[in-house]
Design goal:
This protein is mainly β. The chain is built from one helix and 20 strands. 2% of the residues lie in helices and 43% in strands.
Length: 210
Amino acid sequence: MKNANNTSNCMLKQNTAGHVIGSVGGQAVALRISGTKAAFYNCSFYGAQDTLYDHKGLHYFNNCSIQGSVDFIFGSGKSLYENCYLSSITKKVASITAQKRTNSSLESGFSFKNSVITGSGQVYLGRAWGDYSRVVFSYTYMDKIVHPRGWSDWGDQKRDQRVYYGEYKCSGPGANLSGRVPWARVLTDEEAKPFIGMNFIEGDTWLINP
């Protein structure tokens, strides 16, 4: 597919803060995307904490590599990540996503489809930066680094009934659902449908076939 608006192809964005010897820790944002209707193909984003700031707008990521340690995909965007490689470099326990949907009517959330999770340390699939945080993983291979509980409410239990954290037909040792938090969702075919197609990001209005 080609983007009718903004397209990036074969791009490397890197921030070495926080994981290079002698560097200062903390945030290591490699890319912040705040514009809407933007697509990224075959791109690599390397950082540590807060690698990819998916700030706001509709976004599409295809065949991208995203590396980080803490909350390395975060923000309020509404984005589809397809065929992406998510690599953790954390040494302890961290989270892949920190999605900041702040109310139930906000068109915001991250959907990961046909992707791979691997790397070091132990990671939650997401933790609730926003009270109504929304993240879905479908058809994704999860290595053993994924924490058995899967998801974190960031220490605020009132979020347990508000967040939307779902998994659909994922595979690998980290996709074992037996230890998941009780408020995580195992999606049915019907529940998963809105998240696994281009309609999630209104792609038919701005992404066009070549």
